[in-house]
Amino acid sequence: MQLPPKQTPTESSTNSSFCASTLARICRFPFHLITKITQKLLGPVKRISRRSQNRSPTCAFKIIWISALLVGEIFIFYYAMRKCSWPYNPHWDTSLADPFRIALIADPQIIDSYSYGRTGILQRVSEIYPDMYMRKNWINLQNIFDPDAIIFLGDLMDGGREWDDDKWEDELFRYRHLFLPKKPTRTPIYYLVGNHDIGFGDNVILRAYERFRKVFGKTNYNVVLGNHSIVVVDTVTLSGSNESLKEEGINLIKRLENDSSNNLPRILMTHIPLYRPPNTDCGPLRQNGHYINQGAGYQYQNLVTESLSNFILNSINPILIFSGDDHDYCEIRHERESKVIEISVNSFSFAMGVKRPGFLLLSLYNPTNSSTSLDDIKNNQSTFAYTQCLLPNQIRIYLWYGVLVITTLSCIFSHTFVKIRRSTEMLPVWLRYQQKKRWILFNSQFWKTAGKDIVSIASVALVTYLICWIWFLVG
């Protein structure tokens, strides 16, 4: 008997049996063990997540405020100074002599009740904050640059000409405390008189003029610094018609004109900028506008008259001119044979209408007393170098603080809102319904919780702020 042929398994039957066996293995896999292991591993992560959601951002904002105040009150002022350095001419041979270094400060014009007519707390705030701004920069200037001499270009006080003697003494005490010299015996300080100190022209107030001279010295003088003749001319009184007030200045100018024995390079210092043609461009470093044009008003005049300017320039023949009064930087060249540069220096105060106050660093190098220095100047081997130094934008710092205040309040209120909202979800249904009928912002618990966090942050910020101020007040 013949047996039937043996059948070989088809491809489809093989695949179906393989799938069945695989499914059986999967069903036997211990998924319940994997689930338990996963729950144990993720348990701590979930607990940490819940804790972080319930944790108040108070600690983080304390750190943020401490950092922000240290930067805004100390480090940004230090950084602004460090960005500046003493100017230097590569042609100078410092093996013969070191440059003589002078810091020029214009128009500190400390705010008083005359400035804005304010009273009470608003007036005190108007005085304190510009004072602290200048105090910080004054201390950093002395500590970082250690100048050989300092020259104030006038307008020391805003209402100096307006006050009686008692009030002026009070403002003088404030000014001296503000600009307390670090090395009074080693670093001489020289002063120019400004129209805010004594008035201007024919309206100069004699009482104010005499007390300024009594405290700060003559308003017209000549001093040798770094083998240069620094000529200080009182253009405030020279702009008037009072011959007795003008006599000192005219005598100085004529004496220098006729002095052939002193061939030191001359640098002119004047509070009021000298005359220039209308719309003379002040250069790219000016912040507001492009030029200083002639103008006049109560106790001020923008420029010295053309005739007086020519008289001063022709008689003194300076190699460089510095002025103040305008509050903004301006650099021009007077159209003369030697193309003399005049620089109006920024105000030192942020309350004088410029975003970035500043000062100027001047390096003088003239190792000999011979007349060759004048020849060197004509050959473009200058005996001086200068640079403008800008100070921080104080208004921008205050705006940053404002943004941080809004951010802090928003985060604290949002966190408190979410926290109370979650706490109501844990209540019984009937009580939860009653709570939902009341808006959370009208809940006393909301304001108590948020207020506690805000007071905690504000206390730390206030202490940090006071420490920053004390640092400079006693510095």
UniProtKB/TrEMBL annotation:
Residues 100-329 form the Calcineurin-like phosphoesterase domain. SUPFAM superfamilies: Metallo-dependent phosphatases. It is found in: Membrane. It holds the Pfam family Metallophos. GO terms for molecular function: hydrolase activity. GO terms for cellular component: endoplasmic reticulum; membrane. Signal peptide: none annotated. InterPro entries: Calcineurin-like_PHP, Metallo-depent_PP-like, PGAP5/Cdc1/Ted1. It comes from the Eukaryota. GO terms for biological process: GPI anchor biosynthetic process. It is a multi-pass membrane protein. The chain crosses the membrane at residues 59-81, 398-418, 454-474. Keywords: Membrane, Transmembrane, Transmembrane helix. This is Metallo-dependent phosphatase. It comes from Gigaspora margarita.
